[in-house]
Amino acid sequence: MPTGTINILAIESSCDETSAAVIQNGKVLSNTIATQKVHERYGGVVPELASRAHMQNIVPVVDAALADAGVSKNEITAVAFTQAPGLIGSLLVGACFAKAFAQALNLPLIAVHHMQAHVLAHFIEDKPEFPFLCLTVSGGHTQIVLCRDHLNMEVLGETIDDAAGEAFDKVAKMLGLPYPGGPLIDKYAAGGDPLRFKFPMSEMKDYEFSFSGIKTSVLYFLQAQRKIDPDFAEKNMKDICASVQHTIINMLMAKLRKAAKELNIKHIGIAGGVSANSGLRKAIKEAGEKYGWQVYIPRFEYCTDNAAMIGITGYYKFLKGDLADMSVSPTARATWA
Ligand code: KG4
Ligand code: ZN
């Protein structure tokens, strides 16, 4: 195992956040995130605009991360970057930067899987015990992951169509809300009645999820109601948001409870952008009390995309000697566990 101070410079650029972090011996010294506002008006991330924004942001973001950490580039031990999955143009910007940085300073390179990093975000502050069960819910993925060790993970099940975050964002778009709609649905839901409107829960086998059904049923529901009253959505925004959120959380929690019970695991966490959702955070806390789980909920800045989680994953990979060589290239899709 390497000795002395280990400073990892981490780069995340898989979607619409340009982020850099410095991790010293497994502790976060800085975590700089530039969120791209350019996508708001399009109702979703526009890949080409994301790549261009990463190009503009990457150097200042890395500079800021080094300055915040008080670590110079000559003190960096290794460079970690998101290799997959994500938008290929966005990934390429981070990968090229990381490779150039590593090449120029003759540093080792570490390729990180974004979904593994979302899970390991839990190890930035807490140290969950193994076996650890993680529900990872983001804009692109919905997975139940069994972690036997930091780098030994198994995806027990995932969505067969839309991700939970995508369902939040698409419903938000139908309601006329800007992208990303998840946080806005969360906000409106806080003041609404979750039982006012009923939406169907998908019945999937094993640990699989499906969110395309709820999206379609909200679409038809809104179309029908808007024929009667064109302002239906605006007038009932809080109750619609609360009811949709309630249904999505119920689907997520049902599978998490099933996995916890069947595998008899008591150390359980949520990760990914949707784990910032206040309803989901409350639901897992309540389940923890009811079933005697030790529950792990990341701080908000470690829920959505950030380089600190890439850095902590890079740190564990570095300790294991799991390094990449200069021929490594990013991939849009990648299985990992
Ligand atoms: O993990 P993340 O930042 O990016 C991906 O890897 O996809 O997740 C982004 C997703 C978006 O769909 C966004 O709407 C959702 O997380 N999200 C939320 C909340 N905050 C972010 N969804 C529901 N409630 C929130 N508070
Ligand atoms: Zn993510």
Total helical segments: 10
Helix content: 40-55%
Largest sheet: 5 strands, mixed
**Structural classification:** alpha/beta
| Small molecules bound in the structure, each named once | 5'-O-[(R)-(carboxyoxy)(hydroxy)phosphoryl]adenosine, zinc ion
Which fold name corresponds to the CATH topology of the largest domain?
Answer: Nucleotidyltransferase, domain 5
What is the assigned CATH homologous superfamily of the largest domain?
A: ATPase, nucleotide binding domain
Stretches with pLDDT under 50, minimum 5 residues: none
Average pLDDT rating: 96
Order of helices and strands: EEEHEHEHEEEHHHHHEHEH
What is the total tally of β strands?
10
Distance between the termini: 24 Å
Top CATH class of the largest domain? Alpha Beta
Fraction in beta strands: 15-25%
Q: Any idea what the radius of gyration is?
A: 20 Å
Strand order of the largest sheet: 3-2-1-4-5
Number of domains: 2
- The global form is globular
Q: Do you know the CATH architecture of the largest domain? A: 2-Layer Sandwich
Observed structural traits:
single chain; 337 residues; alpha/beta; Nucleotidyltransferase, domain 5; 2 domains; five-stranded mixed sheet; 10 strands; 42% helix; binds 5'-O-[(R)-(carboxyoxy)(hydroxy)phosphoryl]adenosine; binds zinc ion
Describe the protein's architecture and organization.
- The structure is a single chain.
- This protein is of the alpha/beta class and 337 residues long.
- Helices cover 42% and strands 19% of the residues.
- Strands 3-2-1-4-5 form a five-stranded mixed beta sheet, with helices on both faces. Strands 8-7-6-9-10 form a five-stranded mixed beta sheet, with helices on both faces.
- It is globular, with a radius of gyration of 20 Å.
- Zinc ion (ZN) is lined by residues 114, 118, 138, 272-273, 305.
